[in-house]
Amino acid sequence: MSHSYFTRKLLNIKDKHITFEKDYLEEVKMKGVTSFIFKGILSYQPTHCEHCGTLFDSKFKKHGFKTSRIVIPKVSLHDTYLELKKQRYYCGHCQSTFTLKTTIVEKNCYISYHTKHAIALEAQNKISESDIARRHQVSHSTVNRVIHSFYESQTLNLNYLPENLCFDEFKSVKSAQGHMSFIFCDADSKQIIDIIEDRRLSSLQTYFKRYTKEARSRVKHIVIDMYAPYISLIKELFPHAKIVIDKFHLVQHLSRALNKTRIRFMKKFKKHSRKFKRYWRLLLKSHSLLNTTTYHSVHCFKQQMREIDILNFLLDLDPELKATYDLYQDLLFALQTKNLERFNHLLQETPSLISLEFQTAFQTFKTYQSYIQNTMTTSYTNGPIEGINNKIKVIKRIAFGYRSFYHFKSRILMVQNLTKPKVKILAA
Ligand SMILES: [Zn+2]
Prior knowledge:
43% helix, Nucleotidyltransferase, domain 5
């Protein structure tokens, strides 16, 4: 085995036309950093002329070399380059010259497929693009370009939609048309299907109309939060889809209303305001989870108390607060235990004495009653999308914000592992 063979092995170069001379490795300082330069020669007999296509014969002459410096993955953590002398040929048939090609790099490009592949793989992690650029000895814009090229390879199938979908939104980048961007995913496989720049009704209508009617008719359940435009969108474009309101959003809606009530009472009972402030969590906590057995010394009170005692103390201050709290707990219990009968029964009654803030929430629940019933009869939630949204926040933070929406989108899709590296890059 020759040293060329082992060097190719070391650098993971599959192109056997590349050979190395005796003193092929040079250590130089480039921009103050010690770098390795491997000197290789690319030479083989071409099959035909690149320009006129004539098959190789005696009229082909060797015509010097063209040298280019190609970025390749690091060796021993040093920046590494391959200085490749590429054989040039002169074609006597068309009087023109051409340079031999190699499989390790694209034509007119100085960054090897291996490096591009490594960048694409690294972009799937939560790491900033300038860090990727530094690690692979390329510029930030190269990292950008590689990520873009992956995004372009993702094509949508407009004839197909999964049976169960999740709709959600996230705060987008500044350049995006809408303040919020729309994201939807398959509720079963948890894969993102697409991200749309603007979540406003008109743009969503235009977007979903691109899908065939058959694809849209296939959808059976769509999980949404309580955002009215989604409902009109689904009614218009998804004829067989049941609307499911996300359980988490329902609970959040209730607890917000109760919290507003608490704040009003905190201002009313100035003497106890600290207690209201400190123990806000006890009001929102599910009643069955409260501690009823062990006594602890607590702030704001002079004696040892259980959680339930603190709660009762606050509720006894005002009957309106008590009534609101009871209704909140009833609704919460019905939701959590998926007790449809109990839930419908609660909504039928017109409760007296409950706070104004909670009445509004109660009315919303009445309006969306049929959709909330779907929540309790199916197991679909927006859980998968919430997880994705958390990742999006991380991506945004590590990149210190994104200017281009499309770039942001391709990065999200990459991190979510949806875009597979292009075949071209894999083949290298
Ligand atoms: Zn020719």
